Amino acid sequence: MRTVLLGPVGARADDGTPTDIGGVRLRMLLARLALEAGRPVSVDALVDGLWGTEPPAEAGNALQALVSRLRKALRGVGTLESVAGGYRLVARQEDVEAHRFEELAGRGRRELAAGRLEAAASTLDEALGLWRGAALADVREAPFARAAASRLDGLRDAAAEDRYDAELRLGRHADVLADLEAARGENPLSERLAGLRMRALSAAGRQSDALAVYEETRGRLGEELGVDPSPELRGVHLALLRGELKAPAAVWRESATHRLPARLTSFVGRERELDTRAELLATCRLVTIVGFGGAGKTRLSVEAVSRHRAHGRGRVWFVPLAGVGPGDRPADAVLGALSSHGGRLGQRERPGGRGRGRTALPDAGDGPRLRGRAARARRGRHGPALRRPLPRPRGGTRTPAAHPLGFHPSLPLLRMSQLADDPELRDRGRRQALNSPGPWVRASAHWAHDFVLTEQGDLDTGADARR
Questions:
Q1: Residues 6+ apart with CB under 8 A from 167
Q2: pTM above 0.70?
Q3: Residue-wise pLDDT tens digits, 215-224
Q4: Which end of the chain has less Cβ packing within 10 Å, N or C?
């Protein structure tokens, strides 16, 4: 079981399926136990953490009832044990996203301090990719959650600043400048963030804007805290005045935009499937999407990886395997696609390097062999779409199914294309339906004039469409 704390509190089975925890008090209990990651928590600590200074009259019984309900919610995916004087959630550190984040953030900071900039940027990017919102977002009113959430949010800010630092030292100021500008509103008094913004702006040739950042930060510090800028920030300012903030030569990185197929139409629906795949890509080395022909596996795979943080950072490749014939090795197609860029890729991104790239492998029918090849090539996470199911996945792999787009996302489009009084609305509905993933909705849009919607919202396609 994987416990989610970096956002709304929740739990997922090993295959990525969300678990219905229940009410807010149960989520509070799960979060309090998960923060200890397998260590026992006393009854007194749990009562204080959940109710603070206003516990119920029979606090022990109330806690016991919550524990019983949480056990039922976790049945089949997780275990809650009774120990002497308290309770323990059976979990490893890496199974709790908050602890996984801390481990990755610490590793990234050490890599940054050692000058291993590529490794640091990759590790910190993976750490930040675990977040889905504010820490403990839906249980922050719990007494225990305030300090824990504040601490985690602070660690997130520090990890983001470390990543910006690594990217700037790699000469990638254009990649992080927009993020730095956006972060200003969230943490306007951060001197380190101000210094990073000054460096990025200077590298972009915007010295006057960089100087303005210093003056703005100095004014805020004086007005709100009554302090002067730190020696570190003053040092950045002095280097800027002296013209010493030279941008390092950028480490070449191929644009990610042409590594995925051009998306000629918009993508409609399947948000839950995309959310599930985002969770899986964050935690699994291999994600296999299975389904029958025409279910939209390839389009779903491409859409999922295109929304991943790695895509914008140039670490996603698309490798079509439909043309791999008898006697050909699918792994060779993967390595060939990666090696075609090898002359200009860094060690982290070359086949056999230590990168954390993501690869979409449509129509890959040889999953076990690919897993073995991928392990030997020491690749990162992969998101293949397969035409036939594989044996039960092992070793950090997941196999969600790709089903045709359900009625709920598509029916409003068809209703619009058939029932709207405004011809423009009808045309818009038909165009959007034509852009939908999978052939079912696209065909429906073509035939929409023959469809009849029943009172229950079902479709009567008529004899022509059935033929």
A1: 121, 173, 175, 176
A2: no
A3: 999 999 999 9
A4: C
